[in-house]
Design brief:
single chain; 190 residues; two-stranded antiparallel sheet
């Protein structure tokens, strides 16, 4: 028994010795083969990082130069921005004035149309507060009906006043100024 056990023990020790040696050899071989690849990859990574650093430094220098150039342009930019604000405010003022002028022109055109239709002077119509043509026509017709502007014959106490033009004749006058003049010449004087 002791012989068998000794033999078994020796064989086991041989196996134990041989197996770790094989494992060690494989490990050594595998690390030896992969080390150059890892070193190569690391070198490639370092090289690409160095190139990227150079590129970033070049870009940084380029932007620094641009910043220096723009430093001198800042006062000019500030002045241009201020000028632009002034121009914008002037533009707003001009727009407001233009809107006001357009409203005045529209009102004058409205007064002239109603004056042509009703025969009333534009001076009388301009005193009316109506905003659109329909309202202005209504008010003008009320005024026209309530005040006899064009009498045929007028007796001024003891004097008899002769009227040169009738109401229909004055209404036919197209020019507003001439029509107003004719109205004033033919009004009742109290």
């Amino acid at each position: 028994m002791s012989c068998t056990t000794q033999k078994g023990r020796i064989e086991m020790e041989k196996q134990n010795i041989e197996e770790p040696a094989q494992v060690k050899d494989e490990t050594v071989v595998s690390t030896t083969e992969s080390e150059p690849e890892k070193v190569e990859e690391t070198v490639d990574e370092i090289t690409s990082l160095q190139e990227e650093i150079k590129s970033l430094k070049a870009q940084a220098r380029k932007w620094e130069e641009r910043a220096k150039e723009n430093k001198d342009a800042k006062p000019q930019l500030d002045k241009l921005m201020e000028d632009m604000k002034n121009i914008q405010s002037e533009n707003e003022e001009v727009k407001q004035q233009l809107t006001q002028y357009q409203k005045e022109i529209e009102r004058t055109e409205l007064l002239n149309r109603v004056a042509n239709e009703t025969g009333l002077p534009t001076a009388v119509l301009s005193a009316m507060k109506a905003d659109n043509e329909e309202e202005l026509l209504n008010v003008a017709n009320i005024v026209k009906q309530s005040i006899p502007l064009y009498p045929k014959d007028v007796h001024d106490g003891s004097q008899h006043v002769n009227i040169k033009m009738t109401r229909a004749e004055i209404s036919k006058i197209r020019n507003p100024r001439e029509r107003e003049k004719a109205i004033l010449e033919n009004l009742i004087k109290e």
